[in-house]
Amino acid sequence: MNNIIRIPINTDKDIVAARQRGRALALSLGFSETDSALVATAISELARNIVTYAKKGVIQIQANGNSRPCIQVIAKDRGAGIANIKLALQDGFSTSGSLGLGLPGVKRLVDEFKVVSKIGKGTAVTFKKWKS
Amino acid sequence: MEVPVLKQGPFLIATVQAALSDEDLVHLRKAMIERVVTSRSLGVIIDVTAMDIMDSFASRTLCEIAQMIHLRGADTIIVGIQPEVAFAMVQLGITLEGVVTALDLEEGLSYLKEKFDSDA
């Protein structure tokens, strides 16, 4: 049950694959259609961040939680890192000229959310979503 | 994953068949604006019933398609956004502002026909 699904993210096609794996796992754990869509959407956004900012990385999806099922997702890359995490978590902020929904949007979709980043080393975004 | 586009009178109907990658979405954007020009269409329906999710890129691209088609003097209607997809979009902060939406293909078509009739 606690197998880690590891999906390398290199192209936009991998974004679709990652979110579909996430959704399938959520549904298999008994998550509702809505919560499964939230998980899939969050994975899609994080995977796209990898492609856009770091070019490549990996998404790890894992089921955990004993009494209450939980999905944990880690999006990791070895890109440039985020200079100011506080700023990156503000609504409307973007360095790529995109919509700037980015990380704050993802944070709203999930229950637990953590960003760890080191300049020049990369970024790891972790989220958890519990079955409601 | 190519999105088939059907011509129905003065309208075009694009039916998304499965989850779309970013590249597919960009391709759809190009194909739609070209078809609107060559078919001299008055209205476009994009049926997204089969879309698994609508993230920021998908939403932005659909908005761009609607805006481009609007500049051509035609209308765009997005139909079939699934309830769980809509829920996730709103949580994410996406509103598809300025884009007309309808429940399904039937509603979309009747919207266009009504508008077209009253314009004529």
Low-confidence stretches of chain B: none
Here the CATH topology of chain A equals Heat Shock Protein 90
Q: Span between N and C termini of chain A?
A: 19 Å
Mean pLDDT of chain A, nearest integer? Answer: 90
What is the C-level CATH assignment of chain A? Answer: Alpha Beta
Count of extended strands of chain A: 5
N- and C-termini, Cα separation of chain B: 37 Å
Largest interface, chains and sizes: A-B, 28 and 23 residues
Helix % of chain B is 40-55%
Percent of residues in beta strands of chain B:
15-25%
Q: How many helices of chain A does DSSP assign? A: 4
Can you name the CATH architecture of chain A?
2-Layer Sandwich
Structure in words:
The complex is a heterodimer of chains A (132) and B (120). Chain A has helices at residues 12-28, 33-54, 85-88, 102-109; strands at residues 4-9, 57-64, 70-77, 112-118, 122-130. Chain A has 4 helices and 5 strands; from the N terminus they run βααββααββ. In chain A, 39% of the residues lie in helices and 29% in strands. A 5-stranded antiparallel sheet of chain A has the order 1-2-3-5-4, covered by helices on one side. Chain B has 120 residues and is α/β, with parallel strands linked by helices. Chain B has a single domain (5-119), classed as Transcription Regulator spoIIAA (2-Layer Sandwich), CATH 3.30.750. Chain B is 49% helix and 18% strand. In chain B, α3 (83-92) links the parallel β4 (75-79) and β5. The longest helix of chain B has 18 residues, at 22-39. Chain B is globular and about 35 Å long. Chain B starts with a strand and ends with a helix. The mean pLDDT of chain B is 94.
Give the SSE layout.
The complex is a heterodimer of chains A (132) and B (120).
Chain A: E1 4-9, H1 12-28, H2 33-54, E2 57-64, E3 70-77, H3 85-88, H4 102-109, E4 112-118, E5 122-130
Antiparallel strand pairs in A: 1-2, 2-3, 3-5, 4-5
Helix pairs in contact in A: 1-2, 2-4
Chain B: E1 5-8, E2 11-15, H1 22-39, E3 43-47, H2 56-71, E4 75-79, H3 83-92, E5 100-102, H4 105-119
Parallel strand pairs in B: 2-3, 3-4, 4-5
Antiparallel strand pairs in B: 1-2
Helix pairs in contact in B: 1-2
